[in-house]
Design goal:
- The complex is a heterodimer.
- Chain A folds into two domains: 33 residues; 109 residues, Nucleic acid-binding proteins (OB fold (Dihydrolipoamide Acetyltransferase, E2P), Beta Barrel), CATH 2.40.50.
- Chain A is 31% helix and 27% strand.
- A five-stranded mixed beta barrel of chain A has the order 2-4-5-7-6.
- In chain A, strand 1, helix 2 and strand 2 form a beta-alpha-beta unit.
- Helices cover 63% and strands 11% of the residues of chain B.
- Chain B contains 20 helices and eleven strands.
- In chain B, strands 3, 4, 5, 6, 7 and 8 form a six-stranded antiparallel sheet that branches. In chain B, strands 2-11-10-9 form a four-stranded antiparallel sheet, with no helix packed on it.
- In chain B, a hairpin with a 4-residue loop joins strand 7 and strand 8.
- The chains are: A alpha+beta, B alpha+beta.
- At the A-B interface, helix 1, strand 1, helix 3 and helix 4 of A face helix 4, helix 9, helix 13, strand 1 and helix 14 of B.
- Strand 1 of chain A pairs antiparallel with strand 1 of chain B, so a sheet runs across the interface.
Chain lengths: 168, 670
């Protein structure tokens, strides 16, 4: 092989690998990306049933009903609209009525949401960012009086080591 | 008083870091040996000062000095000592101090071990290291002072986040930081070489051990973090493709590529410009990881605080260092003497392929991690009321990362067996036939035994076997005496030849076999069994060939928490294998519940249990898993790190005097 051929082989294989990577990314982007909506947005956007998405808001007071085999039904609300969520499995430690929650799953034709994972905040002062933003938009977000912040004179939004559900 | 000493030492260290980032580099430019000579002592004193500062903060934690804000927020007098100490880096301020401590210690280590290095290179390297230290010391002093006092001091601290009260906290962050920050040395070497305008095989020989050290720590750090998440979060998963995990995976992928490209540079004096670029990119990815984790743009257990000034400050550091080093690269790299172009079928050709695949897979992780942030920023800017919020999770990475990783892993045994310069693919294929046939047999056998189960698992096991056997083949081939293994007396000869192989050959084989073990562990997760059950005391359920019996539920008290545990017995028929005690804990200081998983290791698999809820009549809602071969995932990474360690021992031997005397002749003509 001449020097030029070698150089071309190198450049060619580099372009091929990068091309494949770019193709894979574009292909995956079409199908695997999950959008996040609040209950009001969900009503506005006219989402196709069967679409995979994440919804978030507050667990409505008095809405949690537990059935047999760890089945649970609850409503997620942004105080304007609410969505009924069905889920079967273990709820996060900090799942409570009136607290922030994010659920991932599929929208049923009935308008109910069938969740296959439920993430809640992992700290009493913590609100998932998506939920906080969504609630702010609805104008119902209240600044949590951060215990840590108040004691230490640091900014009141301090949220020490907060985990979002499954995520380490 | 100790606290003030710590703060003062930190300020002095900052002053020295400024000196270090200016004077030696001035010396390089002005060709002044005295100015360049300041680099080593200044780097040593700077590291000592940062160490004093770190010790002072640790002392405040150990003595529970609640006049320090940081201690109040993250400690509690009832905490066991190990968590008081590891509490130092459980929070934003302390972990940044640890970050800088490691950076300074690495600089000092280069200064100590750099007596054989060319003076201009050493001055450039330490200067660059000083600049990074200056930026992060300024960041700590301006936005994240860990020594801030509180008056009046409270009587008790607020305790550590319960999720962090775990031995994992003592090990995972320091290991991860040693890896992350260790790549700063490769970065500084690249900047030093660019400033000096000269790079050769000797450069690669100096930079390679440091890269290897960082890579070993990062491998262990990521793996330790994965195991911690696995047992602590109670969800039984070991990798979530969470942005924070990706932030550590990206430098690992780039660093692995760098490790391989420095070999090419050292042996063949080629790929120079690419290696320099890769050194810059690897540390840039470490910085981006630090930014993602520390700035609060991501919400996760690692995002300690969402203070916008910190995010802006780190973003500025990011832009200055990544932008600055890339600009330096664009300006100076064309002046570097280009290396040769080589045959595609050769060890170096295979290593280029390795670099291509690693870089491409790193790019897909990068896109998947940053795309949601970029999309939200752009759409939020176009239409502030409706920023698009998306999440990119496991399905995306399975579709993009795996198709790039699998061909790379398939190619590993070939690359490892190819000769330098002009490889013989046919010869290599012949040598690997045995390994290939065995790997296929393993796949078929596993497929037959588990017929009807998931097909991906046997294929994955076959891939793992291929990696392990392929690595073994390399060792066996190289220790084969003339006349074969079975001629009289040759077995002993073969053993002594195997023992006489360079440690780096053993290191390579071990590291690649380690990947094989991890791949097998990952593949076996497909056979995992998951059951969600509500059990009465005395009830037994089946779980993947074993039985689990709930003996009862009992309250228990820990040093700073109360817990309720479910006592489970794991049985194999009538034989008791052991007990599990998953529980729910309530920490007094935070009044926050956490779940503690119960684990029982059976062979290389684990029975895993976590409690959902315990009802008043003694029934327990449980999540039970049987995870076959799961330990291989982490054992494999430990084997990889051991392989790295073996190579490192080899480097030290070969970093002796003869290297420099024959340095210019590193490239024999083809």
């Amino acid at each position: 092989m001449t020097r030029k051929q070698r150089r071309l082989t190198l450049i060619g294989s580099a372009l091929a690998v990068l091309g494949v990577a770019a193709g894979l990314v574009l292909f995956a982007m079409r199908d695997t990306i999950v959008f996040f909506y609040g209950p009001s947005e969900l009503a506005e956007k006219n989402v196709q049933p069967g679409t995979r998405l994440r919804i978030g808001g507050l667990v409505q007071q008095g809405s949690v009903q537990k059935g047999p085999e760890m089945a649970v039904v609850f409503a997620v609300t942004d105080t304007n609209k609410s969505v009924t969520v069905r889920y079967r499995g273990i709820l996060p430690d900090l799942f409570r009525e009136g607290q922030g929650v994010v659920a991932e799953g599929i929208l049923e034709p009935s308008g109910e949401f069938r969740a296959d994972s439920v993430l809640a905040k992992h700290d009493e002062n913590y609100m998932p960012k998506e939920v906080a933003d969504s609630l702010k938009k609805q104008g119902v977000w209240q600044h949590a009086p951060g215990k840590d912040g108040a004691a230490a004179g640091t900014p009141p939004t301090t949220t020490p080591a907060a985990a979002q559900g499954t995520k380490p | 008083m100790i606290v003030e000493v710590g703060h003062y030492a930190l300020v002095l260290a900052f002053a020295l870091s400024l000196v270090l980032s200016v004077i030696p580099i001035w010396g390089v430019v002005a060709r002044d040996g005295v100015l360049m000579g300041t680099a080593r002592p200044v780097a040593l004193v700077m590291a000592a000062l940062v160490a004093v500062s770190f010790v002072a903060l640790t002392a405040a934690y150990v003595t529970s000095d609640f006049s320090v804000v940081n201690v109040v927020q993250n400690s509690h007098s009832a905490k066991p000592l190990v968590y008081k100490i590891s509490g130092v880096w459980s929070n934003h301020e302390g972990s940044m101090l640890l970050w800088v401590l490691i950076l300074a210690v690495f600089a000092a280590a280069v200064a100590v071990r750099g007596s054989g290095m060319p003076q201009r290179l050493l001055a450039g390297v330490l200067g660059a290291q000083g600049a990074v230290a200056a930026a992060f010391l300024a960041f700590i002093l301006v936005t994240s002072n860990p020594f801030a006092r509180l008056s009046p001091a409270p009587f008790e601290g607020q305790g550590l986040n319960p999720l962090l009260q775990d031995p994992g906290l003592a090990i995972h962050p320091p290991l991860l930081y040693l890896g992350y920050v260790g790549f700063s040395i490769a970065f500084s070497f690249a900047v030093g070489a660019l400033i000096e305008g000269r790079i050769d095989a000797v450069w690669a020989r100096f930079v390679r051990p440091w890269t290897l050290v960082a890579w070993i720590f990062l491998t262990l750090g990521i793996s330790m973090g994965s195991y911690w998440a696995y047992y602590e979060l109670g969800w039984g998963g070991w990798w979530f493709w969470d942005p924070v995990e990706n932030a550590s995976l990206m430098p690992w992928l780039a660093g692995t590529a760098l490790l391989h490209s420095t070999v090419v540079m050292e042996k063949r004096d080629a790929l120079k410009v690419w290696t320099i670029l890769l050194s810059i990119l690897t540390f840039s990815l470490s910085l981006i990881g630090t930014f993602l984790v520390r700035s609060g743009v991501l919400t996760s257990v690692h995002a300690f605080a969402t203070d916008p000034t910190r995010g802006t400050f780190i973003l500025a550091i990011l832009i200055i260092f990544i932008g600055g080093s890339l600009a330096l690269f664009a300006w100076r790299a064309p002046m570097l003497r280009q290396g040769g172009i080589f045959a595609p079928v050769s060890r170096e050709g295979a290593l280029v392929l390795n670099n291509l695949f690693l870089a491409a897979s790193c790019a897909t992780v990068f896109v998947g991690t940053l795309y949601p942030l970029a999309l939200e920023a752009v759409t939020g800017w176009l239409d502030p009321a409706n920023p698009a919020k998306i999440s990119v999770g496991a399905p995306f990475f399975n579709l993009t990362f795996l198709p790039l990783a699998i061909p790379l892993l398939l190619a590993v045994p070939f690359g490892q067996s190819l000769a330098w310069k002009r490889g013989d693919l046919l010869g290599v294929a012949q040598r690997l036939v045995t390994a290939g046939v065995l790997a296929v047999l393993v796949t078929v056998a596993v497929l037959a035994v588990t017929w009807g189960g998931p097909v991906a698992a046997p294929l994955g096991i076959g891939l793992g076997a291929w990696l392990i056997l392929g690595s073994l083949t390399e060792i066996v081939t190289r220790s084969r005496p003339a006349g074969g293994f079975f001629a009289s007396g040759n077995l002993g000869k073969a053993l002594s030849r195997a023992a006489g192989l360079p440690r780096s050959a053993w290191g390579t084989a071990l590291a690649h076999a380690g990947i094989g073990l991890t791949v097998i562990g990952i593949a076996a997760t497909a056979w995992g069994v998951e059951r969600i059950v509500t059990m009465k005391p005395g009830e037994t359920v089946d779980l993947g060939g074993y039985q689990v019996r709930l003996d009862g539920v009992a309250p228990r008290n820990g040093p700073d928490y109360r817990e309720t545990v479910a006592r489970l017995v794991v049985l194999d028929g009538s034989k008791v294998l052991g007990t599990l005690e998953p529980g729910k804990r309530i920490f007094a200081a935070r009044n926050m519940p956490t779940s503690e998983a119960g684990l029982l290791t059976v062979g290389l698999g684990q029975v895993y249990a976590s409690v959902a809820e315990i009802e008043s009549d003694g029934r327990a809602g449980l999540r039970l898993y049987w995870k076959p071969l799961v330990l291989l995932i982490w054992l494999g990474s430990v084997v990889m790190a051991l392989g790295g360690g073996l190579s490192l021992l080899d480097r030290r031997v070969r970093l002796g005097a003869p290297v420099r005397s024959r340095a210019p002749a590193a490239v024999p003509a083809e």
